[in-house]
């Protein structure tokens, strides 16, 4: 495997501060114009941000847009106000301001809790799940086996997929789950899928304790590990988790750069620390520094 070059970490807080200072007055004026249909009678409920009607929520999962509707999934425990066996909750919106809570999308089963992940619209039917001309939506999530964790095993997290043929409202778990077994890593979770249109494949980044693993697939069902990054780079005062990974085109040159956003838990403070890493994707899918 080709050695991965170092990325440069850019503290997200610095970027947000600079942007905030520059656009403070503009954003203040804009926020005054935003109206929502939410009632202000519930004193402790956010008016603008989405919250479920009841109980625990955390990580956003599997966001996608299809046929005029934005879909948001999230870590959800419907039975209490504290963390518990994780489900995927679901909400939809037409404008990303007013949200309507839907039925629970994914529930725990004998393989474990439903931890964080992502979702993609498989418009080319690479998965083969299309039926009656209905475009499949594929969700990839982490199975967290609480029994295995309690037994002291390291392989209690694995990656699985589910598919929807009604635009994300109802889901069928893949019969051959997990699609990626655990190689013996204690923290092995939070898959983020993106489409690599240049190389006509799916790419996925996975948080694996102190680094990121990168995988590729042609059909979203069979995955091959292609590289890893981060063992000797960046912050390591916590567990790596909840990555994001996407391409961006440089306006001046048209060159495509890839951005990896990596969360660190617990980070320097009690909240998650975020870092942004920039690089270029090169054959055979290794990463080279650009700054």
Shape: globular
Q: Would you report the number of β strands?
A: 17
Roughly how much helix do the residues carry, as a percent range? under 10%
What separation lies between the terminal Cα atoms? 23 Å
User: Please, how many helices?
Assistant: 2
Low-confidence stretches: 1-20, 268-273, 287-291
Write the CATH homologous superfamily of the domain at 53-238. Glycosyl hydrolase domain, family 43
Describe this structure in words.
The relative contact order is 0.13. This protein is mainly β and 291 residues long. The strands form four sheets. Strands 1, 14, 15, 16 and 17 form a five-stranded antiparallel β-sheet that branches. A four-stranded antiparallel β-sheet has the order 2-3-4-5, with no helix packed on it. The chain is globular and about 50 Å long. The protein has a domain at 53-238: Glycosyl hydrolase domain, family 43 (Tachylectin-2, Chain A, 5 Propeller), CATH 2.115.10. It starts with 8 loop residues before the first strand and ends with a strand. It contains two helices and 17 strands. The longest helix has 22 residues, at 12-33. It is 9% helix and 42% strand.
